[in-house]
TrEMBL record:
GO molecular function, one term: carbohydrate binding
Subcellular location(s) per record: Cell envelope
Domain Periplasmic binding protein residue range list: 31-233
Source superkingdom: Bacteria
Protein name as it appears in the record: Xylose regulator from LacI family
Record's keyword annotation contains DNA damage: no
Alphabetical keyword list: Signal
Length: 251
């Protein structure tokens, strides 16, 4: 990528509903903005706001979670259905019992990447481990305290719980619930993103696997995609890969 001067503004969006994304898009001034990089909730009204900005000459790049029905210029992220399928395949390899219950924690059932990961998981489990029952995804809004209570509730209510897959953020809550119940070595746990507490939990065996998106690579590609779109060029062809970490290969 050639040298380009960029004036960058970073904003934080409430992802608990589509309104947070809509409000953020409405706050964009098309007279002062060439491109927007957005982690979006795919909810009613979001597509229309993206298209409105595009009509006003603003290029929109989505990251992590896509709004594919919009006229955004590019999406940077890994294949979330494949991520869910990968989690299911790893559960097939790690869960020893032939029957049991798999708990799933999601952030929001309106966020596309969470929906796609859950879909991939159920596809994989139906193929490889039909004897395991996958629970409906429980919404924890990527908050540690909500995820902790949801996992604790699963442990209380499902005595045959063999695994937990946390699709979204809030992994610390999952770790705390497993450790407080004393079942960290008995229940297979898969989470997303390699944050410091996840590293510790992988090392001590509370977490079995972390699926990771390299945010540095993601933002590099997103920046290249936005500059290319503004200049009328094709965006980068490089794709993000699903990184997998266990205790033995922590970087």
């Amino acid at each position: 990528m050639r040298d380009t001067k960029i004036n960058l503004t970073i904003g934080y969006i409430d992802l608990s509903s589509g309104q947070g994304t809509i409000n953020a898009l409405r706050d964009v001034d098309p007279q002062r903005t060439d491109a927007v990089c957005l982690f979006a909730v795919d909810a009613p009204g979001v597509r229309e706001e993206i298209n409105r900005l595009v009509d006003q000459g603003v290029q929109v790049c989505t990251i992590v979670s896509d709004v594919s029905s919009s006229r955004r210029s590019s999406f940077i992220g890994f294949d979330n259905v494949a991520a869910g399928r990968t989690a299911g395949r790893m559960l097939d390899q790690m869960v020893r019992r032939s029957t049991g219950t798999v708990g799933v924690i999601t952030g929001s059932n309106q966020i596309r990447d969470h929906i796609e990961r859950y879909m991939g998981l159920t596809q994989s489990m139906a193929l490889y481990r039909p004897g395991l029952r996958v629970l409906p995804a429980a919404e924890g809004h990527s908050r540690n305290h909500e995820n902790q209570e949801l996992v604790a509730q699963m442990i209380r209510e499902h005595h045959d719980l063999v695994a937990v897959y946390s699709i979204a953020g809030g992994s610390i809550g999952v770790i705390d619930a497993l450790q407080e119940a004393g079942v960290g070595k008995d229940i297979v746990a898969i989470v997303h993103e390699l944050e410091p507490r996840v590293r510790e939990a992988l090392a001590d065996g509370t977490i079995n696997l972390a699926l990771h998106q390299n945010t540095r690579s993601m933002m590099r590609l997103a920046t290249e995609a936005m500059i290319a779109a503004c200049e009328g060029r094709p965006g980068p062809e490089e794709k993000l890969v699903i990184e997998m970490y266990v205790a033995e290969n922590l970087p």
